Structure prediction request, 850 residues.
Amino acid sequence: MTGTTAMTHPIVLDIEDLVVGLGPKPGGPRVIDGISLRLREAETLCLVGESGSGKSVTSLTVMGLLPKRALVPGGGRVRLVGEEVLQASDRRLRQLRATTMAMIFQEPMTALNPVVPVGRQIDEVLRAHTKLDARERRRRILAMMEQVHLPDVERIFASYPHRLSGGQRQRIMIAMALILEPKLLIADEPTTALDVTTQKQILTLIRELQENQGTAVLFITHDMGVVAEIADRVAVMRHGRLVESGPLDAILREPAQDYTRHLLSAVPSLVPRPPRPDAGAPVVLETTGLGKVYRERSAFGRAREVAAAKDVTLTLRKGRTLGIVGESGSGKSTVARCIVRLVDPSSGAIRVAGDDISGLSRGALRPHRKRIQMIFQDPYRSLNPRLTVGETIAEGPVNFGVAREDALARARELLKLVDLPPDAVTRYPHQFSGGQRQRIAIARALAMEPDVLVADEAVSALDVSVQAQVLALLDEIQQRLGIALLFITHDLRVAAQICDDVVVMQHGRIVEQGPAQEVLTRPRQAYTRQLFEAAPGRDWDFAHFRPVSAAVAS
Amino acid sequence: MSVETLSEAGEGPRSRLSASLMLAASSPLTLIAALCLAVVVASAVFAPWIAPHDPLQLAPAQRLKPPGAEFPLGTDAYGRDLLSRVVYGGRVSLLVGLGAALVSITIGLAIGLVSGFFRPVDAVVMRIMDGLMAIPAILLAIAVVSLSGASLATVLVAITIPEIPRVVRLVRSVVLSAREEPYVEAAISVGTSLPRILWRHLMPNTIAPLIVQGTYVCASAILTEAILSFLGAGISPETPTWGNIMAEGRTYFQLKPSLIFWPGLLLSAAILSINLLGDAARDALDPRMKRREGTR
Prediction:
């Protein structure tokens, strides 16, 4: 389906010059500043933008779900199948929300009620809006659950949300959203919390249902790969304004605006970067047969063992970057946390510059702590909100006997190294953006002058353009200081751009490992191949505004 | 590619705390409560200047006088001035309340921090706390007072002990969730020693909930002290306390209800306003309570 054939379809959603201000009264600072969008039947419009661009606020406005008094529509029109939504009463909105428009969210676990079986949750929608009897409702629900390709629907009907996987929960959400066959489906980052293979399935499902029911889909995402997979048309947002909009192909090939070009060129390519020469540098980190078993004790005292990591053997040399890629639950974070000794490994050895640290006690470990430092995923939680940036960075050196003044002076230098103003030492973390906080976290790790830096999904929480900056910074630091980098990520694009060597993990085991160039272009294992095929937008070379096939041809 | 610009808003977390306390003070109910408490506290602190008579001076000739110029609230069955006794009585009550809050929070904080961080200690400590919580506070207080005699110190100890488990539980739960925060893990991986982690990274998280808990402990301690005095198991009867005065007034209740009314009024005013201030502090310090207001 392309944008042009859909031009003849009736308009489902018509947003005209929408303004949303910060409350409580109209006329406050504008969060949404004059947005116009049009969405037709059976069409998918992707709303793209970085965090804070106003894409979620736009969707909440359409749904009539803006937090009252905090965000107030200040002008413009939102028409849903010809009906004005902004002026609709709460009662009318409730009706519209189930029958004419529906929404699915990023995190299906929090959107579902944990103490009610999922079948009954879908049933509530039908009970509230139809007059069907119980048998008919059940029949419809089971049919819908089959449509979203849930297995064993009778069992899942009676299951509680926690018994289902993330992908199954999202399918339930989709079933609930579409059971009354709404005209408009708003999907707010519905696959962001899912693994790539599951994401692929959900995207295909949304496509398929849309074709069956003719639903118009407003799809909100930050991921250009997903956009390339699902969009008919694309609207790019920034700071509450519409930057540009148009058919998918036009936006990806010939973006008219600088911002769109900038956004696209920040998307890391899936084609691995040229390999760096392996100079035979000394080994700084080595694990052999590393394993971690979690014991869960059940109520009857019978222990259940879960192996989070099994027989992990890897080697990291000075100045090189080793990536561990895998889906959630593959054990990649467990390995990282074992290496930093935030969890105690159950078996195997961890050798840092020749010394085995796997069995050391807390006290004996202390001198070795300096050599390995970690950067965490969530920059909003990895800095103590009550300490100044300077105190945070100086903490490590002070622990190892450096005088406080010297450590603070060093903190200023490190801030300069990570491209932050030195006077940031006296500020608090909440005064910085996510990307800046991640820089501070990097400075804290560097203050210890480590040999190895372990980055656990260190750029996953950041917007693409910020992500590109932080990756460039890590690269620069590595070249300047010769630090070895252990980079844990689920994002193959990031892995392709930063890693020299790659380890692919699944179910706690290493599936495949080798030079990035080899593993990422000629995977030998079926699982690795499957992982690559699921990577969204793999046919596009975003940074060069062309399909990958064109890149290969040239 | 440019680095994002620094945000300009410049306040530390400490000024955020005071800002939220200011916000709490802006509601009229909270202001009334604060004013009310201020009056009660001032009357107790400045009792020697306010009281027209010695609260202990017996004057059999002046028994059960109605309010008048010499005795603004009248006299009790022994001819003692009621106003003087009530303001002096507030001293004991408020001292017990404040003391119980400070002592139970100090001890509870220490035990809770250690218990929340060290799993083996936790198992033992929490069972002891469960045991303490199973003992009714009043019974424990009566037992302690009858074992070691009635004095301000024993009453304070008797009232404080049953409050400690509540504080420990609160601190422990805060520590349990805060210790999972990545910034605590980051502190561990830069080699920060355990006492420092407890003090620097975990303890500050407990301050806001402890302020709130402290007000509740304070109010309930004042009440317990009054009950103990009323039952005759509290501080020796010659020292005026709100509970004592009411206990003595009970006999003459039909004849002269003001003997119970005035100490009762001050007691209720003090407890009610402390609780209201506690609620206000909780709302101001707990962002979740605030957000609930904003949405439907």
Remarks:
- Chain A touches chain B through 50 residues (CB under 8 Å).
